[in-house]
Amino acid sequence: MPPQIDVLMAKLRAVEAEIEVELARHREALRYHLENRKVVFEKEALRLQRAIKVTLGRYIRNADPWIVVTAPVIYSLIVAFVLLDVMVMTYQAICFPIYKIPKVRRRDYLVFDRHHLAYLNLLEKINCAYCSYGNGVIAFAREVAARTEVYWCPIKHARRVLGPHPHYQGFADFGDPEAYRAKIDSMADGVKFDEPA
User: Fold this and answer.
1) TM segments (predicted)?
2) pLDDT score, position 196
3) Do the Cβ atoms of 113 and 131 come closer than 8 Å?
4) At 38, phi and psi to the nearest 5?
5) Which one of 45, 71, 76, 147 has the lowest number of neighbouring Cβ atoms within 10 Å?
6) pLDDT per residue over 38-90, tens digit each?
7) Whole-model pTM?
């Protein structure tokens, strides 16, 4: 990777660290913290949340009829999400040990914590769990696919890629065969990744 890109990537990691600090401050302002991956609200914050909760009956009565009609279409994707989830877990379990690729921790991508929000009614919590699952499965599958690409084809595209995965910047430049061979040779003992804390 060219030195200037290394400098920019270091700046990006520094900004990401600053964002984490700012998010921690914001959590304090909203009066909650995390204890062993569990959300803990202050009692007064919970009281205020419960005070603005829309009851399930009122939520359903006030629902837009088109939303009610299209809800089964949205929820029908659960079949695809579950199938993708199972297939990606199976693929990773079988192939990653052979390729010497570190496995992706699924729990880092499937996060279910919105049920702790006292201002959500039961249906809103179910909707949030569904969205968390769908987006989590897609993010998990993306990381598994990204690690596969690191192993099999760590070459950047000639055209700009929108939203590349985090490993993409470390790929060999398009049209640079020496960099590609060096990348492949560097993985002889397995692929290495910086794991999240």
Assistant:
1) 73-99
2) 54
3) no
4) -110, 140
5) 76
6) 888 888 888 889 999 999 999 999 999 999 999 999 999 999 999 999 999 99
7) 0.83
Residue with tokens 């990606």: 88
- Rounded Cα distance between 132 and 113, Å, is 9
Angle 148-104-152 (CA atoms, 0-180°, nearest 5)? 10
* Distance in angstroms (rounded) separating the CA atoms of residues 111 and 137: 10
Tokens coding 127: 């909707």
Judge contact between 106 and 91, C-beta under 8 A.
Answer: no
Residue whose token pair is 């200037």? 4
CA distance linking residue 172 with residue 179, whole number of Å: 5
Nearest Cα to Cα of residue 121 among 196, 192, 62? 62
| 129 Cα distance to chain centroid | 14
Q: What is the DSSP string of 179-194?
A: HHHHHHHHTTT-----
Helix (H) or strand (E) holding 164: none
Q: Name the one residue in this structure whose structure tokens are 């249906």.
A: 123
Cβ-Cβ contacts under 8 Å for 76 (sequence gap 6 or more): none
- Select from 142, 80, 87, 79 the least CA-distant residue to 110: 142
User: Sign of torsion, CA 67 73 76 78?
Assistant: negative
